[in-house]
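REQUEST FORM: STRUCTURE PREDICTION
Request ID: SP-0412
Submitted by: Lab K.M.
Chain count: 1
Length (residues): 503
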Amino acid sequence: MPNAVIYCRVSTKEQTQNFSLPEQERRCRDYCSRNGYHVSRVFIERGESAKTADRTELKKLLAFSTQKGAKIDYLVVHKVDRLSRDVADFYAIQATLGRAGVMIRSVDQAIDETPNGKLMSGMHALMAEYENNLRAERTVTGMKAALRQGRWTHQPPLGYRKPPDPGGPSLEPDADQGSLVATAFEKMASGQYTQTDVLRQVTALGLKSKRSGRALTPQSFNRTLRNPIYKGWIETSLTEPVRGDFDPLVSEEVFDRVQAELAGRHSNRARRYSRDNPLFPLKGFVRCGNCRKPLRGSRSKGRERRYGYYHCSNRGDVRTRREQLEQRFYCLLDALRVDEGVLPLFRVVVEDVWKDSQAEVQATKKRLDSRMRAIERRKDDLVEAAVHQKLIDAATYRVQSDKLEAQRLELMVELESLQEKLDIRPIMEFAEQLMVDPAGFWEAADPGQKRRFQELIYPSGLEFDGEDFRIAVTTPVFSYLQQIQEAEERMVTPAGIEPALPA
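STATUS: Completed
RESULT:
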């Protein structure tokens, strides 16, 4: 009897929805029973996002399944998105398990080791990542709108707390810690103390970290003194600076004097290097063919100008001109170009995966509609109790009515977001553009998109020996579409089967 392990996962948000761990485990066990698998072990992941592979139970699963003598044949999940919502991570997990002879199976999705099965698994992983990116985009959009109105959307910083009234300001000063933060600013602004002196004094008075409950580290204290939220301003990377809807802990004059004090003592700042360097998009992604270390990027001064080079940190190993390596990478991508004649098959596969996901979307919509009707009934009951039966006073009515309205608005946002899942066109257009001209897509992308695209197409990275790339493993979506394309090109009608047409 083949041996199997089961993996179940819910994120923090999903724990409140219909993604229960017992139901996932029950369905996975039923699947194993129907297929004659012996369940060796069940791994349960609680409150963990699938956006990263750095998960406690997942790492235990991989260690258990790949250890010598484990004899595990299958990993069973409810759906691919339980395992990962990141395509690169999914392929990395699949490759790790594959080397140990472990195959992935999904209860609700037809995936196996056939070309069609591998293509479907790749498409399910792509869809999971696409939906995750949509959700993140909606969240950021909502946060930007709130921030532009001066509302703080994150956890309250040290010295503040969330007000009990959701309709009021987004923050209010904490009676104890807020006064200590203000004291720290006043002492720093006086110019009579060093940062270390002030930190020691306010720590003795009781200032402590909200997260750990311990004394602030010098680094955390420095970030606190530099945070403009304490003068009543919100400054984030999401929006332009805006005045908050809450009371400041210190005046702008005091805050500015503190910044002058800090600048006078720390004028030299360490330079921060971006991982996504626009001059060297392949830096860290391509490895040295001799020692397998990631290549670095640097510029050397010539007689007339500076020249870019990719090079290994070991002297004597790979060193090549930037233009040469990037041109070879461009040609490597261009060789993956898929003929437009294969796209109809791709559309059929995508639509099949999409239709499979719609059952879950419709079920979610049905649940949300039911909750919306329940809220409307509760609002009617509240009006009846306040207006007609006089059972509650006006203040209680307002508090309860505001809570119900907040729940109703949250449900409306979720219902509107479901409409985006009903439209397959954006992902179809993106995927087709990517496949028919991958080299052009990479060339036109910004630095961050380049790196993400590289990791998507070549999840295991690339090795360069100084002359050319070594054999690279591409994402299965490209691999199998190319196999189909090559098979179609070989399917020519043998001579003599049909009569020759007249000229």
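NOTES: Residues 266-274, 493-503 have pLDDT under 50 and may be disordered.
Reviewed by: T.R.
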